[in-house]
């Protein structure tokens, strides 16, 4: 019998590179205005796709002189049995010296652990400031890509009672930056700020594969990428990991052959789209969606990877361009005062 050989390359399908929307740009501007008040940034990422759900725009918000950052990997329960991968992830995080934890955002125990860490950061700040009180409390911004579990974590931290942050399976449920939400005991004086999920503009995405990983994580709208293409990428990843766990029958690289096997009952025959949607909705516990992280720690360096990624323009350069634009507008207003006065 011929030995099955999985694909090691994936086709470069013509799919969108971004799902960046207007409300996300508005949220970024709101973040910037809140920066002086913030003490801690909680950046949530999906543990199944740490590279794809990392957002370099959040890096720009952080001033190490006044902000601390904790990376929270959510959905740990979906990879809990993949101990080899979790050890590799820990190695890569230590390589770039980032504080991080792994949680299941729905579990109270995880929320208590996060709250204890927040309190620890707060105590460190109080020691550095020699016990001076924080007039507006200890402010914590909860940020990350869409649908990585920000609002779920906030509701769990808040504890019993009605939800204070909207949640949903679809990306983009939270559309605006919230007012402060108090957590812990009243004397803790700790306030969270929930935010919309922020994606990356297309100019900061250099690989279409990132959009496929985000689709599998539910971080972009389900109709943005063709379900058959998503299913083909999931098949590609499953074959590189554990194909026998994620679809019936012998291993195959043919997505249409797979979709005929997983066709849901009652669906029109040979309807590839319906079969793809059905298969994508099934649980695929243990699968990693960033293919680079299937390598071992000797073959992949997170520090090296990050150094090669596109970076947003420094804020000073953005400001200089805005200022130059404003000067041009001022010249127009001086030349045509009546025209500018009617706008």
List keywords for this structure.
single chain, 343 residues, alpha/beta, Rossmann fold, 2 domains, 6-stranded mixed β-sheet, 6 strands, 41% helix, elongated, disordered C terminus
Give a brief description.
The protein is α/β, with parallel strands linked by helices and 343 residues long. It contains 13 helices and 6 strands. It has 2 domains: 23-194, P-loop containing nucleotide triphosphate hydrolases (Rossmann fold, 3-Layer(aba) Sandwich); 226-300, no CATH class.
Question: What report would you give on this structure?
Answer:
The protein has 2 domains: 23-194, P-loop containing nucleotide triphosphate hydrolases (Rossmann fold, 3-Layer(aba) Sandwich), CATH 3.40.50.300; 226-300, no CATH class. It has 343 residues and is an alpha/beta fold. The chain is elongated, with a radius of gyration of 23 Å. Mean pLDDT is 83; it is low at 165-177, 316-322 and 328-343. Strand 5 and strand 6 (190-194) form a beta hairpin. The chain has a 6-stranded mixed beta sheet, covered by helices on one side. The protein has 13 helices and 6 strands. One of its GO terms (molecular function) is GTP binding. Residues 22-201 form the CP-type G domain. It holds the Pfam family MMR_HSR1. It comes from Torulaspora globosa.
Largest sheet: 6 strands, mixed
What's the rounded overall pLDDT mean?
83
CATH class categorisation of the largest domain: Alpha Beta
Q: Give the neighbour order of strands across the main sheet.
A: 3-2-1-4-6-5
**Corresponding CATH superfamily of the largest domain:** P-loop containing nucleotide triphosphate hydrolases
Number of domains: 2
Shape: elongated
N-C termini distance: 76 Å
The name of the CATH architecture of the largest domain is 3-Layer(aba) Sandwich
Instruction: Give the % helix.
Output: 40-55%
What's the helix count? 13
Structural class: alpha/beta
- CATH topology grouping of the largest domain: Rossmann fold
Question: How much of the polypeptide forms β-strand, as a percent range?
Answer: 5-15%
pLDDT < 50 stretches: 165-177, 316-322, 328-343
Report the radius of gyration as a whole number of Å.
Answer: 23 Å
* Element order: H for helix, E for strand: HEHEHEHEHEEHHHHHHHH
Protein name: CP-type G domain-containing protein
Keywords: GTP-binding, Nucleotide-binding
GO cellular component, one term: mitochondrion
InterPro entries: G_CP_dom, GTP-bd, P-loop_NTPase
